[in-house]
Please model this.
Amino acid sequence: MKARVHVMLKDGVLDPQGEAVRHALGSLGFDGVAGVRQGKVIELELAEGTTEATVGEMCEKLLANTVIESYRIELL
Amino acid sequence: MKARVHVMLKDGVLDPQGEAVRHALGSLGFDGVAGVRQGKVIELELAEGTTEATVGEMCEKLLANTVIESYRIELL
Model:
């Protein structure tokens, strides 16, 4: 089975990478880009029967820094 | 309107970051993790009426390196 984890910086946490992308898009002539946030997506190939709770534990322990990042789990 | 872009390394392209995560999960006692791929997710706050084609252009020009990365666009 597969799981996909999205890790994004929490609202209010400065995102310099996203800001750089926003600026670059403007320079390239793309108007109307009001904001950009950049995060990580992690695709996991897991043993059958792995629960969402286990994936949540992986996020808490390794994949996300929960002080500044939030995560979302999608089982595929 | 919002758009979300997923950028992943193409199959066959070595993903050392994903490999490091796989190894670390094993060290933490999570068994059965057969593979990990790490990519980027970019959330864009766009002007109303921006088309998927425009977002595609952003991907081609800036957001993805299409030699080694593939991208997927989601309009929200």
Notes: The first strand of chain B starts at residue 2 and ends at 9. The mean pLDDT of chain B is 96. Chain B has one domain: 2-75. The beta strands of chain B are 2-9, 35-46, 69-75.
